[in-house]
Design a protein that fits this description.
2 helices; 40% strand; three-stranded antiparallel beta sheet
Length: 163
C-alpha cells in the first residue's frame, strides 16, 4: 500500500493515526499531523471569517482558527460548538498561508488506530467524498476518510490573521 507507506520496505512498519469523528464521517489523521487533542472551549466569533470557520481559540499562547471540517467537505456553514465537541489541533505542513496551527472540531473523543504496512486496507470507490478528502478507506472494519492536507491548507489562505 503506497498511500501511507511510500518509502517503507518492511512489512512490520506502522503508522499511528487518530480516527477523528467529524459528524457522520471519520477522518484518518496520521499522528505527525497532530499537535494536540484539547477539551472544548468556547471560540471567539468574528464576522470576517469564512462560513466554515467556527471562530478563534486560544492554544499555547496562540490564537488559532477552529474549523468545522465537515462544513468544508460539503460546502456548508460551520456548526455551533456543543458540549460534546472536542478539538484536534493540527500542524500545517504547507506554505502560502499564515496559520502554522489550526484546529478541527471532533464530534466525540478521537481514538487511535495503528496502520501496518501490508495490512488489510481497502480503498472504497465512493463517487463523491467532498472537498479536502484524498480517499475513502476501509481499515480494520472502519470506514475512514484520508484528508487531502494540501487542499485543506489551501482553504487556510482564506482565513485572515486574528486581530
Amino acid at each position: 500500500m503506497t498511500l501511507l507507506f511510500e518509502d517503507k520496505l518492511q512489512s512490520n512498519e506502522k503508522i499511528d493515526c487518530l480516527a477523528v469523528h467529524i459528524g457522520s464521517s471519520k477522518l484518518l489523521i496520521p499522528m505527525p499531523a497532530i499537535a494536540e487533542i484539547i477539551a472544548k472551549q468556547q471560540p471567539k466569533l468574528s464576522e470576517k471569517l469564512p462560513s466554515w470557520v467556527v471562530g478563534w481559540i486560544e492554544w499555547h499562547h496562540l490564537t488559532i482558527p477552529l474549523i468545522d471540517f465537515a462544513a468544508i467537505q460539503w460546502d456548508l456553514k460551520a456548526r455551533d460548538v456543543d458540549a460534546h465537541n472536542g478539538m484536534v489541533v493540527l500542524r500545517s505542513f504547507t506554505e502560502g498561508h499564515r496559520h502554522r496551527y489550526y484546529a478541527i472540531m471532533s464530534s466525540t473523543f478521537p481514538h487511535t488506530i495503528s496502520v501496518r504496512a501490508g495490512s488489510d486496507i481497502t480503498a472504497r470507490h465512493v463517487e463523491n467524498v467532498g472537498n479536502c478528502i484524498k480517499i475513502d478507506l476501509m481499515i480494520q472494519g472502519e470506514s475512514l476518510l484520508l484528508p487531502d492536507f494540501q487542499q485543506m491548507e489551501s482553504f487556510l489562505t482564506q482565513i485572515p490573521l486574528y486581530f
